[in-house]
Amino acid sequence: MSEDICVGVISGAFGVHGEVRLKSFTADPEAIADYAPLTTEDHGRSFSVQITRAVSGGFAARLSEVRSKEEADALKGTRLFAPRDRLPALPDDEFYHTDLIGLSVFDTGGKELGSVKAVLNHGAADLLEVHLPGSSRTVLLPFTQAVVPTVDLASGRIVADPPEGLLD
After folding, report:
1. Any bridge partners for residue 6, and if so which?
2. Which residue in 57, 58, 97, 168 is a FRET match for 123, CA 20 to 30 A apart?
3. CATH 2.30.30.240 in the chain, residues?
4. Model-level pTM?
5. Integer Cα distance of 24 and 111 in angstroms
6. 37-46 — which CB contacts under 8 Å span 24+ positions?
7. 65-80: per-residue pLDDT in tens?
8. CATH code of domain 4-86
9. Domain 97-160 architecture
């Protein structure tokens, strides 16, 4: 499992004084500041975070050492990471998305269905994007207890009972 967890992304500048538009991926969106300092994926930069206000699609925030609109614009698309040990422990039925990506997916009879390419959430619930073996095709599998009864991180596998017709 990854030692770092992506907790947010910089969506661009907010205003002209160096604030950024920050999208949080944490369960409590405002808690992203509690996990600072946050680092870039390559650990090349580290930022303390001060949320200044809620805005459409996230928060306006000040990051240490970002003082101008140009500096903030240059960070657009930068994903921010926190060490796993700084994040809260999860209950048995919750998972960090990063831990699910790459897991093999099997049906209840043991047949391999594919592997998790991504975890998506468009507002209603999480979906597992499963890459089908021997194909460039993917399917979206609802990440619910009924459809995905077993996630075994230690074995690197998921057992799924996909809805009728999903894999046809």
Report:
1. 81
2. 168
3. 97-160
4. 0.76
5. 36
6. 37/64, 38/7, 38/8, 38/80, 38/81, 38/82, 39/4, 39/80, 39/81, 39/82, 40/78, 40/79, 40/80, 40/81, 41/4, 41/6, 41/79, 41/81
7. 999 999 999 999 999 9
8. 2.40.30.60
9. Roll (2.30)
